[in-house]
Amino acid sequence: MLCIILLAFTFLMVGSSKLCPHQCSCYDASELVDCRSRGFTHIPHSIPHGTWLLDLSGNKLSELRSTSFTGIWALRVLLLSQSNMQVVHSKALSSLTFLEKLDLAYNELRVLPPDFCQGLTTLKDLKLSHNALERLESHSLEDLESLERLDLSHNHIQVIEVGAFRGLTMLRHLNLAWNQLTVLQGGLLTMQQSLGVLLVNHNNISKIETEALAPLQTLTILNLEANQLRSLKFKTFLNLQTPSTHLQMSENPWTCDCELHRVFTKILHVRHLHVDDYMNITCHSPLLLAGASLGLMHGQLCIAETATVLIITGTVMVTVVAALVMAERKRKKQKMNLEKQGNDPMPWESRK
């Protein structure tokens, strides 16, 4: 009798684990659960414990609570894009210890809780693009030790605290495009030796600190297009010791002078650096060169600047020589006057 009761209990437990939430569709023995665009305002109950993919995108969830995913221990992929998400509460994701992909794109998130990534040690792909994030705190992402791809594009990020990416030692692809960053600071990417792609285009970056790129030993693509760069330091890119790196730097308000020409000439002569859009880099100032292609001007910037320097130098030299000649003439004239005075006979009165 006891055996029958145990068998019945086991059957009930197995059966309950295969339940499919109302209004959702379940596939492959309930391991794939599709709850897209069903109008849910909270995470539905009765999600099978063995579910490894859960798609809740296109709903009206507004928030993730601390108990939202309790019991869904096998989840590998969680899709929550376009869900009107405004708040992720503390430890809302901490039970998802096997999660590998998390999509929170196209929501309304303004901040991430300090323990946002707690428990997500196996996460490899995180999408947070098209939200309203304004800053990244130093602890929000520190536990993502397996993360390989991070998409933070199309936010309002102005500040990234040094240390925000400290724990992301496996990161290979970082997208920070279409934000409001003003500087690429040193120390930000210290632990990203495996980073292959860095996208920071369409920000407000006007300065790249000298050591900012130095740790990136495997960087293959660096996109700096459409920022506020006016000048560059060659040492910044000389510190980029990689096998091969492709740079994109057009659509910046470059100040075209001899120094900028020298920097780009040096970069182009470094074997492992490739400026893919060099011919599309145009001058913003001086006004006389506005819209002109830096690549087509070749050495004309330095020729013009050198000619100007030579003219100024020549003018100064002529002025100096003229001054010296005038001084010499004056000296000779004074000498002649003195000699003449010395040779004149004594006045008649003195002879008497």
UniProtKB/TrEMBL annotation:
InterPro entries: Leu-rich_rpt (IPR001611), Leu-rich_rpt_typical-subtyp (IPR003591), LRFN (IPR050467), LRR_dom_sf (IPR032675), LRRNT (IPR000372)
Signal peptide feature range: 1-17
Domain LRRNT: 19-53
Keyword terms of this UniProt record: Leucine-rich repeat, Membrane, Repeat, Signal, Transmembrane, Transmembrane helix
Coiled coil ranges: none
Domain of life of the native organism: Eukaryota
Membrane-spanning intervals of the chain: 307-327
SMART domains assigned to the protein according to its UniProt record, in alphabetical order: LRR_TYP, LRRNT
Entry-linked SUPFAM superfamilies: L domain-like
Start and end residues of each stretch annotated as Disordered: 333-352
Protein name, per record: Slit homolog 2 protein
